[in-house]
Amino acid sequence: MIESIIILSGGMDSTVLLAKQIAQNIQIAALSFDYGSKHNRRELPLAAGACKNYGVPHRIIELPFINQLFKSSLLQSGQAVPNGRYDAGNMKKTVVPFRNGILMAIAVGYAESLDAKCVLIGSHSGDHFIYPDCRPEFNSAFSRAAQLGTGGKVSVEFPFSDMDKRQIGDLGRSLDVDYTRTWTCYKGANVHCGVCSACDERKYALRHDEGKDPTSYAE
Amino acid sequence: MIESIIILSGGMDSTVLLAKQIAQNIQIAALSFDYGSKHNRRELPLAAGACKNYGVPHRIIELPFINQLFKSSLLQSGQAVPNGRYDAGNMKKTVVPFRNGILMAIAVGYAESLDAKCVLIGSHSGDHFIYPDCRPEFNSAFSRAAQLGTGGKVSVEFPFSDMDKRQIGDLGRSLDVDYTRTWTCYKGANVHCGVCSACDERKYALRHDEGKDPTSYAE
């Protein structure tokens, strides 16, 4: 009996969220999405590896229409990902329109099909000011829509909604998450670039300046 | 400049809704979904034909994971569609979990990508008591989530939310909709079966008993 479905990207946030559920003995299944982002090819094998490691059932759903029809520099069809700090000016171009709404809607339907009561997603407070579909007021509205649209069967929960990425990094370290087996860089090359805004935030989260970040960066 | 995206199944409700937008000179694009229902193969060519007829841009998005992973008698992977009246007992098995939530979420992201301000869907009051994701309270919650998740750029509207299917049928007749070019039967054979609950409701809507229904039924 599966209690919860986790949306697992293979990034550090969702991998820590998975580790937390495992530590709490929650019966969980994982759902990943290949929506044609530049870094999907790096993330998805790591998501699969984490599930294998923890013995968690895992499905990858392909959404090729997002890369074909949507506009974002995060997508393979989009322009280059900008370098620089993780701030609104730089990051706006990486918004994939309503991405979290789409991924959560699919996960809600899948959860109802498996009689699972809950969908978990690892969006956090650092995402809020850039991505409208990560903000607390969106999360509340979507969770309410999920409850109503499933006749009360499925809720969506955001356990990291009040945490920033460094707090998530520290939590994962306490749960023995191997961060070398998680991916963050938006450019999706063979190693983390170290200079895009996502790498910038990863360094902050993993306390790179304190020598605690095990990631290999190109720069 | 596209103003609105319509979710077009090729059924009578969404086809009437499309005709209404055309009559109002709304610049519109249509989005259809092949999610593996038994009647998609009948509906989708009719959706494409309506768009060609009205000169409306049209995309069909394939969602094969719904048929593979979700449970519903409406799906090709599901059990037989029940015969009988369009009531809750018979129809519950035809619920595709959170289907409208998924379709609307994708349409919202697509609308934002095209700078369209609005997503239209033809769900109506007759659907409410069976399908939780057609009820007014779900519609309101989802519309709010769409607004928040797109930073206020996209809203979802439900123009038929307060109408029943017969009112929609009458409206379409006044707009010269050719109902022989719309599909309703859940069984998806070569002609409408005439005995499933969806056909039962179509007969009511098109005033079959008054001799106004142009549909050919097997029974």
Summarize the structure.
2 copies of one chain form a homodimer. Chain A is of the alpha/beta class.
Explain this structure to me?
Chain A has 219 residues and is an alpha/beta fold. Chain A has one domain (4-210): Rossmann fold (3-Layer(aba) Sandwich). The first copy, chain A, is built from eight helices and five strands, in the order E-H-E-H-E-H-H-H-E-H-E-H-H. The first copy, chain A, has a five-stranded parallel beta sheet, sandwiched between helices. In chain A, helix 1 packs across helix 7 (165-174) and helix 7 packs across helix 8 (197-205). The first copy, chain A, starts with a strand and ends in a 14-residue tail after the last helix.
By CATH, the topology of chain A is Rossmann fold
What is the radius of gyration of chain A computed over CA atoms, rounded to a whole number of angstroms? Answer: 16 Å
CATH domain class name of chain A: Alpha Beta
| CATH homologous superfamily descriptor of chain A | HUPs
Q: What's the count of strands of chain A?
A: 5
Write down the secondary-structure element order of chain A: EHEHEHHHEHEHH
Tally of individual helices of chain A: 8
The proportion of strand residues of chain A reads 5-15%
Largest sheet of chain A: 5 strands, parallel
From the coordinates shown, what is the CATH architecture of chain A?
Answer: 3-Layer(aba) Sandwich
Query: Alpha-carbon distance between the termini of chain A?
Result: 45 Å
Which two protein chains have the largest interface (Cβ within 8 Å of the partner's Cβ), and how many residues from each?
A-B, 38 and 39 residues
Low-confidence stretches of chain A: none
Could you say how many structural domains of chain A there are in total?
A: 1
Going across the biggest sheet of chain A, name each strand in turn: 3-2-1-4-5
Mean pLDDT of chain A: 93
Helix content of chain A: 25-40%
Please identify the oligomeric state: homodimer
